[in-house]
Design goal:
Blueprint (H helix, E strand, L loop, with lengths): L5 H11 L6 E4 L5 E2 L7 E4 L3 E5 L2 H5 L4 E2 L4 E3 L11 E2 L10
């Protein structure tokens, strides 16, 4: 996958994978993120994503620890219920 800034990568993945959210964040390992600023929002990793349709779903998730950064418990967002695995191959290729 091409190395791009995290915000640009999240925007590209949201577009390629047709994820309709107001705020998208990317972290390759799916473990630490800046806080979402708008919902619906999504957290992306290199293989997929999880969508939070409401503030309640985001703030009350037992898998997230909120602070200056959002810490995802365990091995990352891929272990969370609702995680959607998307095609990882050629996700950001220009073809």
């Amino acid at each position: 996958m091409e190395k791009l800034g995290k915000e640009l990568t999240a925007t590209i993945l949201a577009s390629r994978w047709k994820v309709r959210v107001l705020h998208a964040l990317y972290r390759e390992d799916g473990k630490f993120y800046t806080p979402l600023k708008r919902v619906p929002g999504a957290l992306f990793d290199h293989n997929g994503y999880i969508v939070f349709p409401t503030w309640e779903s985001y703030l009350s998730s037992p898998y997230l620890r909120h602070g200056p950064r959002v810490n995802v418990r365990g091995a990352g967002i891929s272990e969370m219920p609702g995680y959607i695995k998307a095609r990882s191959e050629a996700a950001i290729d220009s073809n």
